[in-house]
Amino acid sequence: MRLRLFTDPEYASPVNQMHCAMLIPFLGKEESTFWSEGTNVFDAYKANGPGYFELADTMDDAQFAVLPSTWHRYLADGTTEVALQFAQKAADAGKQIIVFHERDFDYKFPAPNALLFTPTVEAERRSNEFGLPAWVPDHMTGPAPLRQKQQSPSIGFCGQVTRPRVKTRAIQFARTSLPRLSERRMSGYSAPLRKSYRYKFLRAKAVQTLLDTPGIDTQFLLRGDFFAGANKKASADAKTEARQSALEVFLGNLRDCDYSLCVRGVGNYSLRFYEIMAAGRPPLFFDTGCVLPYDGLIDWHKELVWVPEDQHDRAGEILLAHHRGLSDEAFVDQQKRVREVWEEWLSPDGFFRNFYRHFQPN
């Protein structure tokens, strides 16, 4: 089903006139991050997008309006009034407006006709909010090599882990208990921080739980900084080199393990979740009330090795039970299935190919 959309580039954030991912095949100027810039992340969608959507000449001819820039771009640029003007223009025409927000903090979009697609929901989920993937490259240009089942499951993790110390506990207390510090403010809007900081040490707890579980081969590379500290390098060339080195180590950890640990970060989602899925490695997924894409169509509890929010301390038992319950063939098949789900539903091309399903009755 091909949706008819209307947008107006004149309403892009005037400070940085970059466009949301949905509009890349038509308008270009995508907003990129250092992990996606110059990669293959949008190649397939750029080629196929005109088959999924068409741009209408007028608002009246469209099924939906699309905010040209991401909500976080207007917030960061201090140009939120431009976004709200376009939302009102859509409302006056009797149209809902599709809005994308691609960052860690749960900033709501204050327009009743908005359909907000976001990777992170910290406060209570609203009926107009939908899960959005993190846009990650297909780093290996295909899945990692298939692994064969061994008696003991191996699980990897390569990334930042914050441990509870005096300073980090003090920060956690302030962010979860003090009203003025428990919100993040930007351009007059606020996002809640209490839940984010309540889970500040969850990765450390998850790592220790698995280390303490007999029968699991843990292959953990624990970092003290995001991206192994690459962003702290002095020069742009040094940052690029350090990021590439860190990425190669991360991908090697994925290749060499049966499963990969997936725990939220600052936002109530995980960038690595999408990288793990693209690599064809089943995630051991610690739920924290996450909103995943297409959760009305995909039974994520069955697709992942799911650790419910009230059973985090049983993660090792859950992994062992899952692994022991698989035949040799099913163990291989789950790797294929994980990659298939990423291609069909979570990659930019897959997500937008199925986008119309948000508006069909379940």
Structure, explained:
This protein has 362 residues and is an alpha/beta fold. 36% of the residues lie in helices and 15% in strands. The chain is built from 13 helices and 13 strands. It has a 6-stranded parallel beta sheet. Strands 10-7-11-12-13 form a 5-stranded parallel beta sheet, sandwiched between helices. Strands 8-9 form a two-stranded antiparallel ribbon. α3 packs across α4 and α9 packs across α12. The longest helix is centred in the C-terminal third of the chain and has 20 residues. The radius of gyration is 21 Å and the shape is globular. The mean pLDDT is 91.
Q: Helices and strands in order, then pairings?
A:
Blueprint: E1 3-6, H1 24-27, H2 43-52, E2 53-55, E3 64-66, H3 71-77, H4 80-92, E4 97-100, E5 114-118, E6 129-131, E7 154-160, H5 166-177, E8 183-186, E9 189-192, H6 194-198, H7 202-211, E10 217-223, H8 236-255, E11 259-262, H9 271-279, E12 283-286, H10 300-303, E13 305-307, H11 315-324, H12 328-346, H13 348-353
Parallel strand pairs: 1-2, 1-3, 3-4, 4-5, 5-6, 7-10, 7-11, 11-12, 12-13
Antiparallel strand pairs: 8-9
Helix pairs in contact: 3-4, 9-12
Spatial extent as radius of gyration: 21 Å
Q: Spell the H/E element sequence.
A: EHHEEHHEEEEHEEHHEHEHEHEHHH
Give the % helix. 25-40%
Main sheet properties: 6 strands, parallel
Class of secondary structure makeup = alpha/beta
Beta-strand residue percentage: 15-25%
- Strand order of the biggest β-sheet: 2-1-3-4-5-6
How far the N terminus sits from the C terminus, by CA atoms, comes to 16 Å
> What form results from the Cα inertia axes?
globular
Q: What value does the average pLDDT take?
A: 91
Low-confidence stretches are none
Number of helices: 13
Q: What's the count of strands?
A: 13
